Each structure stands twice: as structure tokens, then as C-alpha cells.
Amino acid sequence: MTDASMGATPAAKGSLTTEDARTKKRNAAEKRFQMYGIAAIGAGLFFLLVLLVSILSSGLGAFQQTFIEVPVYLDPAKLDKNGNRDPAEMAKVSTFGYGPLIEQAIFAQVEANGIATPLDSSKDMKALISASAAAQVRDVVLANPDLVGETVSFRMLAASRVDGYLKGRVQREDVARDKNIDAEHLDLTDAFVDAGIVAKQFNIDFVIGADASESRPEQAGLGVSMLGSLFMMIVVLVLALPIGVAASIYLEEFAPQNRWTDLIEVNISNLAAVPSIVFGILGLAVFIQFAHLPQSAPLVGGLVLTLMTLPTIIISTRASLKAVPPSIRDAALGLGASRTQSVFHHVLPLAMPGILTGTIIGLAQALGETAPLLLIGMVGYIATNYPDGLASGFMDPNSAMPAQIYEWAKRADPAYYERAWGGIIILLLFLMTMNIIAIILRRRFERRW
Amino acid sequence: MSIAKLTASALTIAAVSASAAAARDNVQVAGSSTVLPYASIVAEAFGENFDFPTPVVESGGSSAGLKRFCQGVGEEHTDIANASRAIREKEIAACAENGVTDIIEVRIGYDGIVFASQLDGPDYTAFTEADIFNALAPKVMVDGQLVDNPHKLWSDFNPDLPSEEILAFIPGTKHGTREVFEEKVVAAGCEVTGALEAMIAGGMSEDDAEDACLAVMSDGRAVDIDGDYTETLASIDANANGIGVFGLAFYENNTDKLKVATMSGVEPTTETISTGEYPVSRPLYFYIKKAHIGVIPGLKEYAEFFVSDEIAGPDGPLAEYGLVSDPELAATQAKVADERTMNEGM
After folding, report:
1. Which of A171, B5, B53, B226 is the S-S candidate for B172 at Cβ 3.0 to 4.6 Å?
2. Model-level pTM?
3. Which of chain A's residues have a Cβ under 8 Å away from the Cβ of B228?
């Protein structure tokens, strides 16, 4: 009995409820692996968080700008000496003629509000306002010559140093060594803020405006380069989608399997991995130097990005064509459809969500691409004029969002740094929107078999 | 079939826009990234005050800008090249080969080149040309002998300098600034310390010795910065013991992070540079393709506006940004007004 019971439980160590050493070890290994996985995800999320926080904290300031609101007396003696209100004649007074009027208007506010300041001439007010204010007033006066002689209230941009002071970028202790602004100006700014003349407000011009020169970061906006990006994306879409889809359909549905198609396939996969700067050099050599297309034109940028996007689109299109089950083709052919009919009536519509997803992701990639644009001359002081029509949009020199951000990041004035981050926020919003559209398309329309 | 339509319409759009681009109505400028800030300020004011569209200013460096400028006459080529150095004989020849024979040279002013370091870093406050040469040249004079550079710390050769490891961020060879740095600082130091004489005495020809004087050590103490001054600034930010070479305007925009060093006792300001007391400066130029005047609308107006007293004068926005205005501006204005080319002399 005892022998038998001993035999029935020969190894008491192996039970389902108590783990033996080896099971423990295996379970521990699995737990460990899961922990590694969670740690990896955690690290990823942490870096994403760091990235987002740093982008938002550095960039959100660019959407707000400091404005000065003052009534300006439009002195006829200065602006219209002959007094006949002829815009052509008044246009001869350049922005340099308007500067003093604005400085006087601000100085008048010092006295009107009884602010005590050691700055005792209107010339000292120059450091407070943006150089763009003169052009702003001049444009209004030339558009409405009858305003001359009246006092008109303007909302003008403050100088970038004043703006930086209100945003905490310019510190009092640094100002002593800065020749652009003095501590007295900062005191005056504080007084103006109390008087309600100077205030930070949302600045729509950052989103829709044109680029500005190095000396007035406060005026710079991303709008024109956004249009440049838009025109480039149109070129990419109009060229890459049909070419890519046609190539994939032929390779996937019609081409014979032989050495040539193999070679082409390998090359397409390789092209997808070619660094984008190579496409930039290609674009410079072929489109600009050989074909004599204009430098810096969104058309050329779009052509270069088309080359870059094509492999992405071809690969994703082929994958979604492959995912359509052969039974669909067989059924169509069995009912008497030609091969073309079976492809265009049955296979392509079913593959469309996948193709569109691939295309949008390819476009998003192209939208964020900077390197090839550097080589075809889209960096510099380029994005200044709004295109007036389709042809001008494609052919006139313009920049693109990522190239504009790059350009801002390398300018001397620290205020441009903030704008570069702000530009990144806008660019990221575009990319996120495009990716979300791609996800929605895939979720809603993709069929699984 | 819709694909065929799409492609066809794409080609039509391309064709239509290509023909529409036949008449270019804006001035195109390319070249030096040092001149770019000034050119962008002028272009902006030009667009505001005239009925012409705002000119387009591309960066890319003096050499690249002049190369493009010299590619030919016609609307697809740039009208103006910005340069932080004078055009070279070779470039004039290349221009002539492509039919660009009439070039107007316009000097807009001077740019100071300064040595700056981290605001809270070591006391790099006073340098001489000899200091820079002793720190960076491969062969220097020690006790009257020309030897391989033994210096590791600044204080090794000048006890007034901090005992910090030598580290300098200098402009890369594609920059016009590099040339000025070599000629006005390194070569000057070579001469002052007597290394030039020693090299000639050691059997080198005068030309070879002068070339050898420009050399900078490549063991990591002198780092070439091929990007812009922002890259130099970032390197200085990361290396407290480093000094960097900047343009005066860039330094003046970043006084909250940088402190500037004097050169041979002279502090770089627009005044000391315009009087010539501060030794390291260079003229800035732009070059106009005369064949384009009258063809590209606004080209001459832009050039005249650029050198006008309101813009390039001592109280103008360029001087405010950091340009040292040219005392001979009036002569330049006359030259632009008469469209006098380089062939016709000054």
C-alpha cells in the first residue's frame, strides 16, 4: 500500500498548483519579456511626450503677437505736400516718410497717459514698433487718400524685442548689452501694457502671412509657403497617383513574370530607399539645368517630390491589389469580362481604399520633405508674394512649409527661432490630419476576406 | 480612362504654366548668406514702396551665387549675385564664356568679423592675430624656432589668456568669411610672429610660405562650420571653452548668449570697423547683369534703392541691422545710376 501510493506519486514536485523551478523560470522569463515590452512602449511614449511638450512650449508663442494700438495723425504737410490727394503723387512718400508720424503718435501716448520716462523724444519710440508699421499705414493712406489730415487708429505690430519681453524671451539683464532696445523701453512697455495700449493678441498673420526680412521677425508668416506646399502637392497628386497606379496595375495584373519584371520590381523597392537629397540633385540637373524650368518654382519641387513619392505609391498599390482575392478576378473572367474589365470594374474599386491610404501617406511624406527643396533653390527670402492665379502658383518662386521652417531656424534674430517652432506645429497639424484621413479611409472602406 | 484624363490634364496644366512663365516680372537674386539678411531687408522695403513685386533672394553662398549668375543671359538666369568677397578673375572669365560680359559691381558696405564665446564661459575677451595663429596654425614659432604646434591650452603661449583647451569654430571653406579669416587673422598672425620669415629662411619660396601661412590645424581644435552662424552658436552653446567666428550683425542680435572679444585691443563696433581701427572686416558686394536692365522690370530701381542713402546710409535700416556703411556710397550711387560696368573701370 505504501509502495503503491509511493508509486502513484513518484514526483511530488510536479504539481499543477505548485510551480517547479523550471516553470517558475519560464514564467519569470515571460514576465520579464513583457516588462521589456512595456518599458519600450513607455520609453517611446516618454520621448513623444518630451517632443510634444518641447514643440508646444517653444512654438505656441508664435501664434500670439504683441500689438500697439494708437491713433496716428496723418499729417497732410508730410504725406501730401501739394494737397491734391492724388494717390500717384502721394506714393512718392516712401515708408521712411511715414516712420516719424508713427513715432510721434506713440510719443503722444506717453504724454497723454502721463507716463514718466527718461525717453524724451519721439525718435526714441522707434525701438518699440515694428518696421512694418510704416508700410501698414502707407497702404491704408494710399488706398484711402481722403484720410489724410485725420487721426486714424491703427493696430500695429510691436518690435520683436518688445514682443520677446512680454513673452519672457528677452530678459532685463540681457538688455544692457543689446543695442536694439534699452531698459527704459522695457519700463515704457510695462507702462503701456498697464494703459492698455500694448497687448498680446492672437496673430492670424502668422498662419496666413508672407515671409518677412531678417529685421522684422514679428511680421513673418507661413501663409505663402503654405500655398507653395499646396501647389507642390497638387503636382505630386496629379502626376504620382496616375503614374503609380498605372504602373502597379500593369506589373500586378498584366506583366509576365520574367527577369525584366523582376528587375523592375527590385529597382522600385530600391528607389523607395534612396535618400531624398539624391532626388534633389537629380531635379537640379534634369529639370532646372537641362529642361530650363524656373528655379524655386513649386512645379519643379512637385516634380522632384513626385519622383520621391512614386515608389511609395507603387508599393502600397501593389500590396492592395494583391490583397484582392483571385476569386473576384476569376468570377469576373468566368462571366465573360475581359481582363481590363475585370481589373477596372472589380479589382481596382476593391483596392481603392488601400491605394488612397498609400497615396495620402506618400503625400504626407512629401509634404514634410526639405532636403531636395534646398537644392532647387526654395530656401532664402522667397515666400514673399502671394501667387496671383494657377500659372503663377506653379511657376513663380515660392518656398514650402518645411523649407521655410528651416530658413527661419537659421536666421540671426532669436525671435525667428520661436517662429520656426510655431511653423513645426502647423506642419504637424497638417501631417496629423492627412494621417487621420488615411486611417479613416482604411477603417471605413477596407474589405477583409 | 480617368487615369488617362488625369494625366492629360496634368500635362496641359504643365504646358500652360510653362508658357505663362515666359515673362518674368520679379528680380531674382542669389548668393552669399552673409548678404542675404541685408538683401532681404532691402527687397522687403522695395516691395512696399514700389509697384514691382518683391524680389526673390536665395541663399547658398557667394561662390554658388556667382556660378549661377555666370550661367548666361536670359530670364531663366539670376539678375543679381550677392557676394561677401570680390568676384574672381576665373569667375569673370567663366561669365564671359557664357555671354555675361557686362557686369556692374556694387559695394554696399562692410561687414565686421568678430570672435565671440559663451557669455558665462572663460574670459576670452582680448585676442590678437598672433594668438589665433599660435593656437591654430600647424607650425608656429617657439623660442625663435619654427616647430610643430606644441600648444594645447591658450595660456601655453599667452599667459593673459585662460588656461583652457584650444577649440575654435571657424567658417567652412565654402564661406566667403573663411577667406577673410585666413587672410586678415591667420596670415597676419603668421607675419607678426615671424613664422613667415622663418619659413622663407627655411628655403620656401615666398608664395609657398604665404600659402602655408593660411593653413589651419586639422586635429579637431579648429572645427569647420559649413552651415550658418546659428550652427556656430549651437556649437558654442555646447562647448564653454570654444570660441566662434561670427558676423558683427549676428553677434549684435545674440548678445544675450555671446560675448565678443577685442582684436588687438579694439572692440568691434560699426564705428571702429568703418574707421578701419578694427582690422577684421570685408566689403560686401552685389553684381548686376547689365544685359537684364530694361528687360527685367524693377532691376535698376532695386539696385538704386539698395544703395540709396535712406537704405545703405549710416542711419538706414541696413546700418541698424549691423552693416558698416560705405563712406564712398555717393560714388557707388553714381556708378549704379550710370550703369558703369567693371570693364569701364571705376
Report:
1. B226
2. 0.85
3. 410
Determine whether the interchain pair B21/A213 forms a contact, defined as Cβ–Cβ distance below 8 Å: no
pLDDT given at position B1:
44
Q: Are B23-110+282-338 and B112-281 in the same CATH fold?
A: yes
- A-B interface: how many C-beta pairs under 8 angstroms? 148
- Residue to mutate among B58, B119, B226, B302, with most A CBs inside 10 A, is B58
Query: What's the pLDDT at B20?
Result: 44
Q: Give CA–CA dist B194/B192, Å, rounded.
A: 5
Q: Please tell me the number of Cα atoms within 13 Å of A343 on its side-chain side.
A: 17
pLDDT of residue A77: 86
Out of A293, A296, A390, the one facing B58 most closely (by C-beta) is: A296
Query: What domains are defined for chain A?
Result: 63-203 (no CATH), 223-445 (1.10.3720.10)
Superfamily of domain B23-110+282-338: Periplasmic binding protein-like II (3.40.190.10)
Q: What is the pLDDT of residue A419?
A: 94
Q: Which three cell numbers stand for residue B210?
A: 604665404
Residues of chain A with pLDDT under 70: 1-14, 449
Non-local (6+) Cβ contacts of A383 within 8 A are: A210, A211, A224, A225, A228, A398, A399, A404
What pLDDT shows up at residue A11?
54
Domain boundaries, chain B: 23-110+282-338, 112-281
Bridge partners, residue B141, by sequence: B146
Per-residue pLDDT tens over the stretch A310-336? 999 999 999 999 999 999 999 999 999
Architecture of domain B112-281: 3-Layer(aba) Sandwich (3.40)
CA distance B248 to B112: 5
Radius of gyration of chain A (CA): 32
Cβ pair B27, B52 in contact under 8 A:
yes
A127 touching B (Cβ < 8 Å): no
